[in-house]
Amino acid sequence: MEIIEVSEMSDELVEAFERLTPQLSSSNPPPSAEMLQKIVESEASHLLIAVEDGYIYGTLTLAVFLIPTGLRAWVEDVVVDSDARGKGVGSMLSQRAIDLATELGATTVDLTSRPSREAANRLYKRLGFEQRETNVYRYKC
Q1: Are 51 and 1 in contact (CB under 8 A)?
Q2: Most Cβ neighbours (<10 Å): which of 17, 21, 27, 55?
Q3: DSSP track, the chain
Q4: pLDDT digits (tens, 9 = 90+) for 23-67
């Protein structure tokens, strides 16, 4: 298994998101090819994929942004194909995101994970993430 940062669009990438997005969210449709192109081209988004023999088993997006208190990184939309869960794919993706954030000069890497995602929460703690005492709010536009 290899973890790579996507640098160009492909039909395989679109197909992977069509297959993986429903495993992540039942309320959001897979991104279009145009949206994926924008993500790939964005300086703030780093799209990582787990690939083996040309097949994409998982994805993770690392958002990196500058705010007055420093360069921050945020992990979003981590999804591993149900057939590959328990094989270390999520760990490899997450560790590469941490390494990339560090290489880019981020001072912190944050993420959220639903309490019901017990395996993911154990993984994040194993990787050194600390649970924060905070509230997460969302405003729908």
Answers
A1: yes
A2: 17
A3: -EEEE--S--HHHHHHHHHHHHHH-SSSPPPPHHHHHHHHH-SSEEEEEEEETTEEEEEEEEEEEEETTEEEEEEEEEEE-GGGTTTTHHHHHHHHHHHHHHHHT-SEEE----TT-HHHHHHHHHTT-------------
A4: 998 899 999 999 999 999 999 999 999 999 999 999 999 999 999
